């Protein structure tokens, strides 16, 4: 979500359960305008008071944080859900740095620890990506199962998304895609990218009286930005929700919606009635907001896109046509596992899917997740980055000069006030935004360590640290812009056409028998307690059967592929 999506402080009365007040006369157009203006004023005042805004997180927009050392008492706790992300605030009104460990424990996700990192390297045979090495992707669910899957040479796919809320993406938005592209290179598997124009309209556009069409436009221009991150056309499918929904996707949505209650969704999303639709002067949660999550959930089911997984006789279901079509999803396609890279605020959506996916008629396994921290604001502590404030963010469309200017002028520095003091006491890389950005973009670990040490020692000046940061950012953004120029409407069309993905997965899988032994030993899915032994046994058998089918499908895909080339 983007900054400004709702009100941070205070709590409007909860009307999400539907308390309609019939005593009021219906609002006039003017009432509506006045009301939404008033809401906007209150929102701005409140967010100023708190000097924090909620932040786009899934898309990586950074929180305003103050890196405090020592134990500050929080006057307000940090809060993270898909719609609201805010750092804790201390007694003096300072916004504190996120406590990711507390968040991880609260969400009950697993830490990407040293042994998992080592296994990742061992299984993939490739050096860990710097975003994992440096802890920017720090938490996970079932990543180990994805590694098992890759080890066996089984098919899986990667799913991520973006809420298209503005024309040009900024650096924070780009990070998850940078990482996803690397995962695609490492694993050689399909990637599906969901552009949630519907979500942005539901949660934001409706509130601001904007037109749905605007969000579609953003979806297409963001899709070009995403393409420019370097995704491989052969194995990447990008879709706009509004454009793509239908067929098996919608069947999955419809079925999955029957499995979720309003209360479940409300709990996961943190709805409390404070959202406002321009058409309603009452703070409210619309039914659209309640129903959207099912859509983001079923995107994690391979059966939502059977055409990508190469069922050769498959075409999108048109029950009125006489041709080859399959009305309902194939079980073996539904069984293809999914890995979701996302910022940690998106986790609640995927808890909904992990808790309910086994209840689908053609069940999918629980999707695995790999969670990112949020990118720090350009202004660092106390500042806030917003797509609507050009001085607060580095945009992917910024010129080389603009990047230089922004870093020099706005990037919060951990250096000392004077040259003499800096040389005497040294700088603090832990609060320095230029240093922080280098940890995202500078590949060389040794060089980074050297920069860190010399900055701390005071031998590296803030000016020179910024220079290094500017050079790395210019390289990244410059390369991006070259590729962006090549992302024509034609290319966009190709990426957005559902088609069979071409991928090879693990070139050196371990033998199937070994994998089965491992499977029995350690990787069976958790089942809800109420299931009896017999049921578990049956499910195990079913799972095995699905795996066999999957294996066959993977082999068939590979055979076909080698036949084609
Ligand atoms: N809800 C996300 C946003 O607001 C977009 C999104 C959809 C997403 N599916 C996703 C993000 C999967 C990460 C992973 O930006």
Automatic annotation (TrEMBL):
EC number from the UniProt entry: 6.1.1.2
Pfam families, sorted: tRNA-synt_1b
Compositional bias annotation for Polar residues: 55-71
SUPFAM superfamilies in the cross-refs: Nucleotidylyl transferase
Metal-binding listed as a keyword: no
Keyword Ligase recorded: yes
Family as reported in the entry's similarity comment: Belongs to the class-I aminoacyl-tRNA synthetase family.
Protein name: Tryptophan--tRNA ligase, cytoplasmic
